[in-house]
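Encode chain A's predicted structure.
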Amino acid sequence: MRFVLSNPRLFVVKTGSVFVLSFALVPLLQWKGDIPALAYTSSLVALHIFILGIYLYRVRFRDLDPDRRSLVARVLGLAITVYLLSATSTFDADSSIPRLALQMLGVSFVHMLILALLMVRAVPAGHAGASTSPR
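Encoded structure for chain A:
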């Protein structure tokens, strides 16, 4: 069994969007202490809902896993990356912008792994239809 990106161009667009949105969060992190908690929390929730929409856009879950083994591998991979995301997403508002940007880069790479896990499909080895097709 091998894993193939179902739509490489869409993956690049999604990854770029998540990177841009993640780095747009750096000023918000710096303003955390200066803006009302409700505005800060609302901004974070709105951003994460939008990123969730990016994750799920044009993902056909029925086409991803032909058997239980690949489904278990994907779910395990997603669980590990969600753990990594929670472990790397603790930011100190008093950090310098370069430090916040470096932390955001790490978070963005974890986001990229999650996107990859949602966009690769398992193809049995030697399967004739293993080529990628835009969907």
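The CA atoms of residues 11 and 116 lie 7 Å apart.
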